Structures are given as structure tokens and as C-alpha cells.
Please model this.
Amino acid sequence: MKILHAGTTSKELGAAALKSLLSLVLIATLAAGFWVASAPLAKAAPADMLQSNLPAKTTLATASKADVLTSVCKSINRNKDNAPEIIRAAAGARKDLAGDIVSQGIRCTSDGKGTDCGLVQRILQAGTEADPTNAAKLTETVIALAPDCRLDGKDVPAEGPGNIPTNINPPPGTSTGGGGVPSSCPVCHNGHVITVQCEGLDDYLRGHPGDISGSCETTPDKNQ
Model:
């Protein structure tokens, strides 16, 4: 009788242990699934982030202006550091809204603590890379939105608290591509240095007679 009782107890203990093991496996599986489901949207591609914030059955190509701009702001709010990539994806898909998208990006990165000129610079760079034909217009838009960020090619901040000394555009000759060959070339536009994709520089200059390739230089006969 004791042997039977001991055998029964061992079986019960084995069953209990197996049940506990299965419970732990189930909990671990559910936890892993929850972690994957709740992983930050920042890990997603910019286009996927934008798409996830659009109304159902719409895409960046078909969404209204209001929906595109709302999606841009929501995506940036979830991952501010990824703002330039979000702007590049949105402006690349909707060149007709490039200026509005860049403006929205700058507004949505503002946190009331002063202008982050470094981020503004990267947003403008992303916008002009997505829509190089409107580089000058985009730059003028940014000048109006972020007047504290200097565009004169000098690392001198405008007066005011919280401003970061930086340029809107990278210094002349800065390489933004691989192999040591610059993909963006400096152009003097209305006394401000902007960048234009080097491969389209000639076409840009033909369409903007007053602009000059290279940095702005104040001389008696130029850029006054």
C-alpha cells in the first residue's frame, strides 16, 4: 500500500512539474510576442511609419495634403531623431508637397527649448535630396521658419538663448556620398549657401540665373 502511494505521488509530482514547465514556456512565448508587437515603431522603415499613420486604404501617393502632413508629424513625434529620413521618404513620394512637408517637419521637431539647428539642417538636406529642383525654394522656407539658424556659411549663431551654432547647409566641399566624391555642391542663393545635387548643378544654375556655384563671398561686384 505504501509502494502504491509512493508511485502515485511520483506521478503526481511529475505531472505537476510538466504542467509548470509548460506554463513557463507559454508565458515566455506570450511575453516574446508582446515584445515584438510593442517594439518601438522607430525600428520600422520611414515609409512604413508614414503609412501606419495614414487613413485606411490610402497611401502617400493618394492621401490628401492634410493626411500626409498629419502622418509626417505623428511619425516624427514617435521618433524625432529619425525626422530627416521621414521627411526624405515623404517628400520623395509627394514632391508636390515637398515645401509643406519640410515646413511640417521643422514645426513638429520644435519642443519649445530653442531651435535645434543641426536637426533643421538635416531636415532641409533631406528635403532638397528628395526634391533637388526646388532646393532654393525649400531653403527660403526654412529661413523663414528658423531665422536663428544662419545660412551664410559661418558657424555663428543668431542672438538668443538656446540656439545652437551650426549651419543649415554643410560646408562647401562636404562629401555626402561614398568614395570621397561629394554628392551635394554648394551654391550661393540670395546671399545664402544652399546645397544642390552635383549631378544636377548645371541644370539648376540654368534655371536660376542669379545663383552662383560655390560659397558666397562679399565683394564689390558679387553677392552684395
